[in-house]
Amino acid sequence: MRALLFTTGSPFARAVRIVLAELDLDYEKREEITTPTVEERAAATPTLQVPVLWDGDVQLWESGLIAEYLLSTYRERAAAQPPLAEAAWRSSHAWRDKLVLSTIQTMGAAITTISQMKWAGVSLSENTHLQRSSDRLPYLLGWLEGQLADDASGFLPGCLSLQDIFLACHIRFAENRPIDLDPRLDDYPKVAALLSRLDRRASFRSCPIWWWEPGVTGYEDDGTPIYAR
């Protein structure tokens, strides 16, 4: 039995869903449109966060760990080009590759914190911590731009890496939420080119990121939001 618990909008869960799609793995989709109660979420994970993966006797949470597990456990790769990476990092460049992924996840945490606080009624202009989270974005994107060799490459040569996947999920999340956060991708042409290529990849199209704001209760087949009456 394989299953994934996730909320529709989570960029961390979207990245795991893309890895599952790349590996062509069937799984039960335990999808939540809105956040459940603390008790309901605690029944699945003590972190109270998604995604959570069940794979036979294995139960894992934290998106990076789940993605690393999937890469290392399932060795078959689809014919898509470039192919999905064999591992989360290269043994010859382990610390560099881990640093890139950690930096991208830091960006994702900052963006989702801003989003969550927005819906709790706290805006960027009203909170020093949120403003600092927003101020991180150009520095993080500038550093990540420098880690890409050119506008035709990803973070690991010759493959689709977890670094590529998570970056795309976090940035597209920011662009699809009215949270007053503009990545200004025109300033980062190599990052922009990478994201544009990934948008066309089958696994990304099958796990889209859709617009969300309070009141959205679901989506039409084409992604049009359905609002509560």
Tell me about this structure:
By secondary structure, the chain is an alpha+beta fold. It is built from eight helices and six strands. The chain has a four-stranded mixed sheet with strand order 2-1-3-4, covered by helices on one side. A two-stranded antiparallel sheet has the order 5-6. Helix 1 packs parallel to helix 3 and helix 4 runs antiparallel to helix 5. The longest helix is centred in the middle third of the chain and has 26 residues. It is globular, with a radius of gyration of 17 Å.
- Strand line-up across the major sheet: 2-1-3-4
Instruction: Estimate the helix proportion, in percent.
Output: 40-55%
Distance between the termini: 37 Å
Number of helices: 8
- Name the poorly predicted regions: none
Main beta sheet strand tally, sense and closure: 4 strands, mixed
Rg value: 17 Å
* Quaternary organisation of the protein chains: single chain
Helix/strand order, N-terminal first: EHEHEEHHHHHHEE
Overall structural class, as computed from helix and strand content, comes to alpha+beta
- Tell me the strand percentage band: 5-15%
How many beta strands in the DSSP annotation?
Answer: 6
Tell me, what's the shape?
globular
Let me know the average pLDDT. Answer: 93
